[in-house]
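quick one before i forget lol
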Amino acid sequence: MSARSVAGLLLLACAAAGVVVLARSSEGVRTPAPPSAPPGGVASVPLAGPATCLPCHTQVVEEWRASMHAAAFTDPQVRAPDQSDNFTKAECIPCHAPAPLFEAGIQPDSRVLARIERRADGVDCLSCHGVGGGVAASRAGLSAPCAPVPRRELSTDAACQACHNQHQTHDEWRASPAFAAGVDCADCHMPHVARTGVEAGAPRTGASHRFLGGRDREFTLGGLQLGQRVAASELLVTLRNTFAGHNLPSDSRNRALDLAVTLFDRRGVALPAPVGDPREPGCEAGTARLRLRNPYRAAGQPSTQLPAGEVVELRVALPRSARRASIELFYKLQPWIPDAEAHWSWRQDLELPER
């Protein structure tokens, strides 16, 4: 059983105990079987990114096309003035349009180089697999026109850290319970899927190239555990990072995960926040708020990220007029936008006992 399956069973057990667990493939066009690779380990076909891989790896390419890797150079949020500013910040280019990792070498603390051509392809097939005029493969014994060569480094966490430790995500993972348990990046972000149809080597099991992350609601909620308890005149809401192998939210510093509690009276009217309650832009709504975010260093604010395995509490005083509470989560790609423009949200309503 995989680490993610075990985590899922544990979360279901928590739900039974009164804790809420926040909870494309394509067969493509039939093509002839590829011939054996030429001698010398050099591809017999010109390697030009995903277009080259599509005939044999239709399912993998379709997964990649739906991923944020494919949009790494074109996503409007990435190109926004407060982020790469249309990549006038040249230091952003290497990770968003990287040359093959093997050009710089896959090893601890290695960095990627910027690609000159096809930047709109973002983090593409050759960014990870391109090596020595052929492609790097995670397993041995393969032969094809692209001249696959087994390279062990491709299946290690070092292949991810070259880009994803620029904002300390890899360091966060090394400090997490996941690292201690031997769970790495691919275990969560590249789960096993069935390769079918005319996919090269099908039928077989392969690693998903969808690379799910924080933008996927169900994926993220699967790593969070929400609890609540009413005691005397207080509502205690807890949020635990139960599964993610790094802080939440991680990587891009513009991301924010907001926990909001809104109290309502018997007429359904929302009760306002207490007088003097300080709020950041984008946190105006709700009777009480808690923001999880790692601000830019220039902002002069401390990180409020939720580390892996840890829990945060939001305590809300309950006036006698409060009859119902709404507990909400908002995942924002820009921290100052209103809740209605959050990338995704989640909500639970709770009836309050009369006091």
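fyi Residues 222-351 form a domain with the Immunoglobulin-like fold (CATH 2.60.40).
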